[in-house]
Amino acid sequence: MYRIINRRRVRQLRKMRFWRRRSTDLTKPRLCIFRSSRHIQAQVIDDAKGVVLACASSIEADVKSTGLRGKTMAVKVGALVAERAKSAGVTSVVFDRNGFTYHGRVQVLADSAREAGLQF
Question: Where are the transmembrane segments (predicted)?
């Protein structure tokens, strides 16, 4: 139990380090991700206006129906969020990994979004 609480605390500390740096410059929207044990979600958020510009998730019907899991599902979600962000007029973002380590599904989603045309 202590290890679970400690992991949560470490993740919160990583999030705070990001926000300390991010709070000075809100000119670019951010690509924020959330990873659970089964699904992954990504949003492009404009913090200056407080609105979500684009989002994609592995829970959506068109992603879920493909039957993909794990890293291959993260590739699909990354490409989908990049496509939706470009249609909303966003080409450059700040990557917010939300305290998760840059490894595995998080890294694959970021690489897929870069290949689809988002710059960060």
Answer: none
19's CB contacts (< 8 A; 6+ apart) are none
What would you report as the CA-atom Rg of the chain, rounded to the nearest whole angstrom?
14
Instruction: Give the CA angle between residues 39, 61, 54 to the nearest 5°.
Output: 75
Is domain 2-115 in CATH 1.10.3720.10, yes or no? no
Q: Domain ranges in the chain?
A: 2-115
Q: Are 41 and 56 in contact (CB under 8 A)?
A: yes
Q: What element of type H or E holds 35?
A: strand 30-35
Q: Report which secondary-structure segment, H or E, holds 108.
A: helix 105-115
Q: What is the pTM of this model?
A: 0.83
Residue with tokens 């599904």: 105
